[in-house]
Amino acid sequence: MNAADVRHILDTIGAMFPDARCELNHENAFELTIAVLLSAQCTDATVNKVTADLFQKYKTPEDYISVPLEELEQDIRKIGLFRSKAKHIQNLCHILLERYGGEVPREHERLVELPGVGRKTANVVVSNAFDVPAIAVDTHVERVSKRLGLAGWNDSVLEVEKKLMKRVPRDEWTLTHHRLIFFGRYHCKAQNPKCEVCPLLDVCREGKKRMKTPQNRKNKKNAAKQDNP
User: Fold this and answer.
1) Residue 93 known to bind ligand
2) 195 is in an annotated binding site
3) Is 42 annotated as contributing to ligand binding?
4) HSE (CB half, 13 Å, CA atoms) of 99?
């Protein structure tokens, strides 16, 4: 993919989602770290419902470790994998108190050493809480990047991240991360992407394949009629 195609993609998704942002509700780096940890294999909407009460009850690392593990499990039981996540949260809080004075470290290499915090979570935290440019590759970013040819079909998550970092200007990493998520969450969905009205169909490998089917050709014609009655 050449630089012009990349620019076309970035400008198009930017026009579609100019206000893309982190949709996990939080007020500080600590809350964001907890929210992203909880979001693994779970929707942001569900996490926000749980953290609405969770962040009222627990304000500091001390609060999370002052209750029995079973109580924390019950507080987040609507979240997938809630038992393991509750354990990660308490272990993480112990480390924050023992090593970092109760504060979330700003360094990526230190963040990934925390329980339940992988590379994606660390990238989200450093970029949103500390304004360090980063691209976190979640399921939406990975899917969209591969469909649009920004990464290869068989690339690992890390390979997708590295290719995006190479192709996207560094000062646009964080914003591009959010816009790719919005594009994948609200437009280029896993099961029913809106190929028939997609302004990036010209560079989308998946879209071109899908639009070759009779049903999708019909959908495209119907969409065109709606746009031009």
Assistant:
1) no
2) yes
3) no
4) 13
Domain 3-16+136-186 classification at class level: mainly alpha
What pTM did the predictor assign?
0.86
Residue 208 pLDDT: 86
Residue 210 · residue 193 · CB < 8 Å: yes
Q: Per the structure block, which two tokens stand in for 19?
A: 């206000």
Helices within 58-187 (DSSP H only): 61-65, 69-75, 82-99, 108-111, 119-129, 139-147, 157-167, 173-186
The HSE-up count of residue 199 (CA atoms within 13 Å, CB side) is 12
The residues spanned by each domain of the chain are 3-16+136-186, 29-129, 195-227
How many residues does the structure list for the chain?
Answer: 229
The whole-number pLDDT of residue 218 equals 55
Q: Do domains 3-16+136-186 and 29-129 have the same CATH topology?
A: no
Q: Which residues of the chain have pLDDT under 70?
A: 213-229
Please give the Cα distance from 36 to 44 (Å, whole number).
Answer: 9
**pLDDT at position 211, please?**
85
Q: Are 213 and 173 in contact (CB under 8 A)?
A: no
Whether the Cβ atoms of residue 112 and residue 122 lie closer than 8 Å to each other: yes
Q: Which residues are catalytic?
A: 120, 138
- Fold for 29-129, please state it: Endonuclease III; domain 1 (1.10.340)
